Amino acid sequence: MKKYIILLLTIFLIVVTIAEAKNEEYELVSKLSNEKITLYAKKIGDLYQDFKIDFKGETYFRPFWINVTNPAYAPQIHYEDINKDGEKELIIILTKGYGTGLLDEEVHVYRDTHGLMDVLVDNPMAIIYKNVKTSLTTTTAEIKVGDITYTVDIPPLDILPSNLFDDIAFGNIIHYEVQDNQLIAKVSGQVSPVSFIGEIVIVYEYRDKMYQAKSIKFQPYS
Q1: CB under 8 Å to 143, separation ≥6 — which residues?
Q2: Hey, what long-range contacts does 159-162 have (CB within 8 A, 24 or more apart)?
Q3: Is residue 24 classed as helix, strand or coil in its secondary structure?
Q4: Taking the C-alpha atoms of 201, 206, 67 and 132 in order, what is their torsion angle to the nearest 10 degrees?
Q5: Average confidence (pLDDT) over 134-151
């Protein structure tokens, strides 16, 4: 019996040691102290991976999330009522990549209904493909959103004709933010490898159990 108890204690100590070692692999990457919300992740090379969310005393694991380790691009945590139902939602914005002419962000939204529940956010690129028409020449870039056509003159940008794209490109810079209790996506429009003329601004609303575009407009950089 004594040997059996010693064996159980040994196994217990091994399990505790392994658990502690695993916990030590996690680093605190972002925190919303006043709401008791903390993000942890494991640092692997230049990326944080295998995330853990501590949300008001409950723990949730997100093993497939990634975020760059540069502190300037740390995950953003928002806890605000963005669907106007009187209850706050958890919004987490990740940065998967960045560089010259590149910003790749990803957003996750959760409802707190006795535990975190994912809510789908319509992809901003899909919204653009369905709602925005563009054309590009050596003199003019045109962006049509609904009944409104925006025009940008190309010559002042001093772009060599050989560097000009065939059409306006979107997707290299995707940025999310939360302003005035609204989720917003901003997607830059590009006419050459180094020239951006403005951004499509998408304001989301909660509709049909997901976040869809409430409004879409083009905002020139000039």
Answers
A1: 132, 133, 134, 149, 150, 152, 168, 189, 198, 200, 218
A2: 159/191, 159/192, 159/195
A3: helix
A4: -30
A5: 97
Distant-in-sequence, close-in-space partners of 156: CB < 8 Å, separation ≥ 6: none
Burial label for 57, CB within 10 Å (0-12, 13-18, 19+), is exposed
* CA gap 53, 38 in Å, rounded: 6
pLDDT band at residue 113 under the 50/70/90 scheme: confident
- Could you tell me how many residues make up the chain? 222
HSE, side-chain direction, 13 A CA sphere, residue 43: 10
**Side-chain-side CA neighbours of residue 94 (13 Å):** 21
* pTM score over 0.85: yes
Say whether pLDDT at 23 is over 90: no
Residue 91: partners with Cβ closer than 8 Å, 6 or more residues away? 76, 77, 78, 79, 80, 82, 107, 108, 109, 110, 178, 183
Q: In whole angstroms, how large is the CA radius of gyration of the chain? A: 23
Would you say 212 and 130 are in contact if contact means Cβ atoms under 8 Å apart? no
Both tokens of 182, joined, read 């609204």
